[in-house]
Each structure stands twice: as structure tokens, then as C-alpha cells.
Design brief:
Elements lengths: L14 H5 L31 E2 L5 E6 L5 H10 L10 H13 L4 H10 L5 E7 L2 E9 L4 E4 L4 E4 L11 E4 L4 E5 L4 E5 L9 E3 L15 H7 L1 H9 L3 E2 L4 E2 L8 H6 L3 E5 L2 H17 L3 E5 H4 L11 E6 L5 H12 L3 E6 L5 H6 L2 E3 L12 H20 L4 H23 L4 H8 L5 E5 L4 H15 L3 E5 L16 E6 L5 H12 L4 E7 L10 E5 L8 H18 L18
Parallel strand pairs: 13-14, 13-15, 15-16, 16-17, 18-19, 18-20, 20-21, 21-22
Antiparallel strand pairs: 1-2, 2-3, 3-4, 4-8, 5-6, 5-7, 7-10, 8-9, 11-12
Length: 571
């Protein structure tokens, strides 16, 4: 916006597609921008944000879902408003315009509009002749960056890190007037709201490509250092224990826990599934891992003495946040296992542990998976030592866990015949991933990565379940990726390999270096040996590289895959 004149530029496709159509110089003192993840209506220029009022004097961008949008749109059309999109968001700008036309000031117009809405929103609105932005939050993340004579609004803290270390983390139900002079906050219901400024951790890390061609490859290779950051100061070699002080759980607390529950989506869920197995094996306490999006809709029974963990890289995953609130409503206790400091889930939980993997720019997560597994392994040792795990075994585990970052570094320096795997899978109709025990979630993570960035249909199954369905898909040349560390289930996994080979499948085997199981493979990729409990942090590495190089071979965008968002802030 320049001199009170609102100018709008929008286009489908990538940000670069829009940049190519913009004027060489854009002047102004106030502006809003948005990248859309489609919920209502197709991917079209008309549905892209910002949406404007009919007279062009108001522009709006919106994250979230307006649940009563159909009713609001119908009412607006009956009143003669010509809607130009299929989105739920457009209704908001016309309602705000109605209020403004009736004499309301901008803040009041937004407040009255939101009172008529059901759903979630991270909202920014600009008005002609008003050099400020009105923003509001309910269920979708919104952060204000505080500068000197300038302020910014973003959906999370990462893009603000290059601009300021000082932020206001908006709570649900809060509105803010943001201008170059300052920030004023209040609640949708009209009551006052504090605008406390938080200082971000300046050790977050660099979000620059450096010498790497893609953030995906950079983040894969950052895993050794990320793991060191996660483990530093949390290992007690003398006592064979782990320290996660942020959880606020004493040994006495840990002894009384009847069960542990994990909540997560996508990669976070797979890390949670690894953590579940580790906890049951080391602490002999029941553990469960739930899909966040299903959890609260099944009317779960909550035990007040149980511990629940919300696992999320961004800390903004809408489904996981909703599950957290459901547990808390029912009297349960939830801790966060989060990467982004100050995120909504971290603040909602109040207690938890940060995984310290640093910024992830690539949409499909890599290093966060490894660090989530590392953090949950620490907790498994901690609860194990409080219950049944001996000091001697704890010491062995702690020493092994301490060595994992170096082992990851060693593998990445010599990743094996990944390019051969690419040739086998890039033109496949589908790829089957198999693993047993603690490797079954790793198989799911490998399948997810290949689907996310290379768009190849994949199935992931516990190897023993392969006989119940997936085996019907196998034919001559079908690629099957098998994760088979040298653990107690290796012989069972070999049997599944034989069943696949008998049907003409080609076996891509991820195994520990020096293991004779390599003979069972058409392509074998060895990883360094470690304690069976920690193999996921090593066996996942070739799967990440296979996905990356396959996507490159197919000409896919490895950092910004189609239809995906880094933080899924809608249910």
C-alpha cells in the first residue's frame, strides 16, 4: 500500500512465478502477502489471497478455516455482493466492508466480523487510508516481530529471525493493530490483552543454503550436529541416565505413570512410534502412539496420572494442538516434544523438551525426525532408570547414544549405492517398504519421504504383515526396500525377504555394516552398527537420500513439493 492506495498482485504457482510478474520496484509502507494451501476451492488466481472488498479499499489474507462460511457466503450473495472466489476467506473481507460502511472503525469492523465466525484464523487486513495492519489469531499461528520504527507479522518465528529477535506471540482470541509506531493488542470480546515481548534464542541457526544445491540435502547433512545439539548436557554417563529437566518429572513421578501416550502427524507420528517401542522395552510401561487427527474424535479415555507427549517439529500442527486441548480438558497432563521455540503447542503444554534440530526450510522433514527419536530415546532411558532399567545397562545405552552423531557423520561421508537404488525405483509403479519392530516406523518414514518429494506411490508395512495384502502387488522387478538391522527380529525379516524374492521382487536392503544379511539383497546399503534401540537414527539416512536423489532424477522440487505445507495449520 502506497499513499493509501492498495495494489494487489497474485498468481498461482510458486513465489518465483509471482516475482516474475511484479513491477521492478514496489513502493509502500504497509503490505500483506500470503502463500495459499487450498482448502475451499481449486488452485486458481481468483482463489489466491489477498481477497479484496468490492470497492478495493480493504484487502485480507487468511490462514485457517471458517466453518460457517457457506452460510455467510449465502447471506452476502442475497445482499447483492458479487463473490469472486470459491474460498471461505473471501466472506471475511466483505463482512468487514459491511461493518466499515456502517460507520465502524477498522479494528471494530474486524472484531464484529470475527464474532460472527466459527472456525480458525490467522488473519491480516489492510485498509485504504489507514497505514496499519489489523491482525487476529484463533487456532492458526500468528507472531508479531517488533523492530525499531517497523514491525512485521508472520505465521511463525522462522522468517522473522533475520529481522528481529523480539516477538509478540499472539494467543487465541487476540487482535492486534500493527503499525510502524507500535503494536496494540486486545481480545475479540473487547477486553484488554497484554502484548508481552519475547526475545528469541539467537542460537537457532542459519536458514541459508550455503554451498548446498537444496535445503533438503543441507538438512540431511546437518543431522550429526543437530543430534549433538539435542544430546548435549542431557546424558549422565556416570549414572547411566538421561536428563530432560524441562519435563518436570521426578523419579517418583515416573514410577507412578500407568502409561505413556504420544500424539503426532506424519513424520512426528513415526518418531513417536519409535519412542513408544523404546519406552516399553526399557521401562516396561505400556505406551501408545496415536494419529493426532483421529485422537480427539474417538472420545479418548484420559488417565490423570498418565503422561502424554505432543510431538511436532513446527509446534503449530492444528490436529496435534486440538488433541492437546482435548487431553487437558479431560484433566490429562501433556508435554511437548517440539523444535520451534515459543510455538503454540509448546506454550499450550507449558512443559516439555525442545529437540534443538535448528531451522528446517525443506517442507519434507529430515533432521527433525532424527532429533525427535533422540529426544524420545532420552526419555525412554530416563523413565527406564526410574523403574526397571539397571545402572549398568543404562550406562551402555548412554554411551551408545552418545556415539550416534559420529556414526551418522561416518555414514553421510560414504552413503553407499544410493544412485543404483534411484535407477530401480524412479520408474516403478509403486515401492514397498518393510521393517520389523523398531524398524517398522522407519519403513513408514522412508515411504512417506519418497511419496512426499518424488510422488511415487508407496506402501509401508511391518514385514510380517506383508503376507496380508501387499504381497499381491509384487511382480517381477517390483522394488522392495527392507530395513533390517542386526537385532532379534533379523531372521524373521529374512523370511519376508525370501517371500518377496520368490515373487520376482528386487530387494533394496538397509542393514548394518559387516552383516551377512547383505547376501540377501539385490542392492545393499550398509550403515554403521549401534545398539538396536538407536538404529532408526542410522537406517533412516539412506531412505532420506534415496527420496532426495529420486526426486531430483524425476525433476521434482525437493524443497517445495506440490500440495504440501511445512506447518499444517488447518484440520
Amino acid at each position: 500500500m502506497k499513499n493509501g492506495d492498495i495494489r494487489v498482485h497474485k498468481r498461482t504457482g510458486k513465489v518465483a512465478d509471482l516475482e516474475s510478474k511484479l513491477p521492478k520496484k514496489i513502493e509502500g509502507t504497509c503490505g500483506i502477502a500470503h502463500t495459499r494451501w487450498a482448502t475451499h476451492g481449486g488452485v486458481t488466481n481468483a482463489n489466491a489471497h489477498p481477497h479484496c472488498s468490492e470497492d478495493g479499499k480493504i484487502a485480507l489474507v487468511h490462514n485457517g478455516i471458517i466453518e460457517n462460511a457457506r452460510m455467510l457466503r449465502n447471506r452476502l450473495e442475497k445482499e447483492g455482493v458479487k463473490l469472486r472466489s470459491e474460498t471461505d476467506s473471501e466472506a471475511l473481507v466483505h463482512l468487514i466492508h459491511r461493518e466499515l460502511s456502517n460507520g465502524a472503525k477498522p479494528l471494530t469492523a474486524v472484531r464484529r466480523t470475527l464474532k460472527r465466525c466459527r472456525g480458525t484464523w490467522g488473519l491480516c487486513v489492510i485498509f485504504e487510508d489507514h497505514d496499519k495492519i489489523i491482525c487476529a489469531r484463533n487456532g492458526s499461528p500468528l507472531v508479531i516481530g517488533v523492530g525499531d520504527g517497523e514491525n512485521w507479522i508472520a505465521s511463525d518465528t522462522l522468517p522473522l529471525q533475520a529481522l528481529t529477535q523480539h516477538v509478540i506471540l499472539l494467543d487465541d482470541g487476540v487482535l492486534a493493530e500493527v503499525s510502524s509506531e507500535g503494536v496494540k493488542t486486545s481480545r475479540v470480546d473487547g477486553t484488554s490483552s497484554d502484548s508481552e515481548v519475547t526475545t528469541l534464542d539467537d542460537d537457532w541457526g542459519e536458514a541459508e543454503l550455503g554451498d548446498y544445491p537444496h535445503f533438503k540435502l543441507k538438512e540431511i547433512h546437518e543431522q550429526p550436529e543437530a543430534l549433538r545439539q539435542c544430546l548435549t548436557g542431557r546424558l549422565d554417563l556416570k549414572d547411566g541416565n538421561a536428563r530432560l529437566g524441562g519435563l518436570g518429572l521426578s523419579s517418583k513421578n515416573l514410577q507412578k505413570i500407568p502409561y505413556v501416550r504420544f500424539l503426532g502427524c506424519g513424520t512426528a507420528l513415526h518418531a513417536a512410534q519409535v519412542g513408544r517401542i523404546a519406552i516399553e522395552q526399557l521401562a516396561r510401561v505400556p505406551a501408545l502412539a496415536h494419529v493426532s487427527s483421529e485422537f480427539r474424535h474417538n472420545d479418548p479415555v484420559i488417565h490423570s496420572d498418565a503422561i502424554h507427549f505432543a510431538v511436532s517439529q513446527s509446534g503449530e500442527t492444528a490436529d496435534t494442538l486440538a488433541a492437546v486441548k482435548e487431553i487437558q480438558l479431560k484433566g490429562g497432563d501433556v508435554r511437548g516434544v517440539i523444535n520451534v521455540v515459543g510455538s503454540t503447542i509448546a506454550r499450550q503444554c507449558g512443559r516439555g523438551c525442545y529437540i534443538h534440530s535448528g531451522p528446517e526450510q525443506s517442507v519434507a522433514s529430515t533432521k527433525a525426525f532424527s532429533n525427535m527419536v533422540a529426544a524420545l530415546s532420552l526419555f525412554a532411558i530416563q523413565i527406564g532408570r526410574a523403574r526397571t532399567l539397571s545402572r549398568a545397562k543404562g550406562q551402555r545405552l548412554v554411551r551408545s547414544l552418545q556415539e550416534v552423531p559420529q556414526l551418522v557423520e561416518e555414514y553421510l561421508a560414504n552413503p553407499g549405492p544410493v544412485k543404483k537404488v534411484v535407477k530401480m525405483v524412479k520408474d516403478a509403479k509403486s515401492v514397498l517398504f518393510l521393517g520389523r519392530g523398531i524398524s517398522a516406523p522407519v519403513a513408514r518414514e522412508g515411504a512417506l519421504k519418497l511419496m512426499e518429494i518424488a510422488y511415487i506411490p508407496c506402501l509401508a508395512y511391518p514385514a510380517g504383515e506383508m503376507k496380508h495384502g501387499p504381497i499381491a502387488l509384487l511382480e517381477k522387478g517390483s522394488p522392495v526396500v527392507v530395513i533390517a538391522p542386526n537385532d532379534s527380529l533379523k531372521d524373521k525379516t529374512i523370511s519376508s525377504i525370501h517371500e518377496c524374492r520368490a515373487r520376482g521382487a528386487k530387494i533394496i536392503l538397509i542393514h548394518e555394516a559387516g552383516d551377512s544379511i547383505a547376501e540377501e539383497a539385490d542392492i545393499s546399503i550398509p550403515v554403521p552398527s549401534t545398539d538396536p534401540m538407536f538404529t532408526p537414527m542410522l537406517t533412516v539416512l539412506p531412505l532420506q537420500l534415496i527420496a532426495y536423489h529420486t526426486a531430483l532424477a524425476l525433476g521434482c522440487d525437493v524443497d517445495r513439493p506440490r500440495n504440501l505445507a511445512k506447518s499444517v495449520t488447518v484440520e
